[in-house]
Amino acid sequence: MVTKPERDAQTRVVDAVAAETPRHSLWETALAQLDDVAMRLQLDPGIHAILRQPERELTVAVPVVMDDGQIKVFSGYRVQHSSARGPCKGGIRYHPDVDLNEVKALAALMTWKCAVVGIPYGGAKGGVRCDPRQMSEAELYRLTRRFTTAILPIIGSRRDIPAPDVNTNPQIMAWMVDTASIIKGETTLDIVTGKPVGLGGSQGRKEATGRGVALVTGELLKRLQREPSGTRVAVQGYGNVGSETATGLYAMGCRVVAVSDISGGLYCGDGLDIPDINRHVAAHPQRLLQGYTAPGVQQITNRDLLTCDADVLIPAALEHQIHIGNAAEIRAPIIVEAANGPTTHEADEILNSRGVIVVPDILANAGGVVVSYLEWVQDLQALFWEEEEVNGRLCTIMTNSFREVWDFAQQKEVSLRLGAYMLAVARVAAAIRLRGIF
Ligand code: NAD
User: Are 87 and 161 in contact (CB under 8 A)?
Assistant: First the structure.
């Protein structure tokens, strides 16, 4: 259990990092990207207008009785951007920066992500504006139940299926299942994904996003005729996605030279011992890199990590970490976006003009939603697969999707980001045309 002084110390570290990070509207970035793609695709203006606006935006008040007996009211959101290709799908985030615009942008990203990997979903996202590091487990339990009740009218297995995102996890999904099941009077395992394996979850879901990032990085290295052993990788963020990505790339033979989290970063030019770091993080009360030491390992800041001498930079923390203030200083010639929206639109233009290859988030981190889809399929048929089968299907979907985006981008002579977006937007637009306007 994390003590109050530990939580306060952690908050100071996080606030210092947040103060360094410029704030842009993620929604503005999302719209700018869509507008650019719409122009290149010569998209029907009516369909463009449909895609510029989420189908449904729900804001809810979430009152919670805190441990000291006081009532605190949190703001919660669920946004469904598009259901043209199937039920909406997207995570739920607990974070102090959550607001409606951020959730709208992340919902749109989910629409493009599901389309680019060809799974039959639309896009959604949700979140509660709260600081989970300042809350006890009992407070998070009550918050989750109240939030689930508030959004229940619009979620469901055939409507909109939430999943974990930043600061939410399988335990929180289990509380969501229980709340929905009690209110509906029937077991509804298929209402969320990312559940514990003992409660309708899928083997391999926890590792899926990082595994997918490592798979697409491996595919890119093949296209560039680069050997993993000669490739130096830096990973920003060492939570679920960052740690699994580093673990996957280390297993593939890459040299992971730098990793970081909110407590700071580590660098070793000869390559870090990722299994040893994982043991340290697992034993740390807050699962942080803080305090890790080993011969030849230097302590670095997050800023140092982003600009360090590496071949591949993998942002796996939060959005807008690569911005106009640091894009010109990034030395890695390849960026694989494991986080959602880690690069601002302006920074993307700078990277493009410098010839940096960027594998966009909607492709690079789609492994999580792919295995969420596989979990949903297993729940619907009440028949569960071995991890090997899940991983095999994940590998097929990710490598095929990477190939489609790579070939399309080469053929159209555009960046991988533009190629991925053009494919995704065209697929969603085609579904809207097939359905017609009701
Ligand atoms: P997480 O909460 O498990 O980990 C986030 C990590 O980032 C932590 O190590 C934290 O310390 C670190 N961090 C936060 N701010 C930082 C900063 N300014 N500098 C350096 N490190 C910082 O979250 P996660 O599930 O690993 O998600 C990470 C990103 O990946 C998010 O953008 C999320 O939306 C995206 N994503 C997650 C999944 C998933 O399945 N979990 C799927 C797709 C995309």
Answer: yes
For residues 204 and 371, give the distance between their C-alpha atoms in angstroms, rounded to a whole number: 7
Whether 262 is in the pocket of ligand 1, judged by its Cβ within 6 Å, is yes
Distances (CA, A) of 134 to 9, 68, 96, 129: 11, 13, 10, 12
Joined together, the tokens standing for residue 387 give 């991890």
Instruction: Please say whether the dihedral angle defined by the alpha carbons of residues 111, 117, 121 and 126, taken in this order, is positive or negative.
Output: negative
Place of tokens 């805190």: 66
Tokens encoding 311: 């071949």
Q: Cα(300)–Cα(302) distance, rounded to whole angstroms?
A: 7
Sheet holding 160-164, edge to edge: 56-65, 71-82, 122-129, 88-95, 160-164
**Residue 81 CB coordination number (10 Å):** 29
Distance CA 376, CA 205 (A): 11
Distance (Å) from CA 316 to ligand 1 centroid: 5
Nearest CA to ligand 1 atom 40: 368
Active site residues: 125
Q: Is the CB of 316 under 6 A from ligand 1?
A: yes
Token reading at 69:
């007996």
pLDDT along the chain (438 residues), means of 10: 43 40 70 94 97 98 98 98 98 96 95 98 98 96 98 97 94 98 96 97 95 98 96 96 97 98 96 98 96 96 95 94 95 96 91 96 97 97 97 98 98 96 98 96
What is the pTM (predicted TM-score) of this model? 0.91
Atom of ligand 1 lying closest to residue 369 CA: 42
How do beta strands 71-82 and 56-65 pair? Answer: antiparallel
CA of 367 to the centre of ligand 1 (A): 14
* CA–CA dist 233, 214 (Å, integer): 11
Residue 267, ligand 1, Cβ within 6 A = no
- The closest residue, in CA terms, to atom 41 on ligand 1 is 165
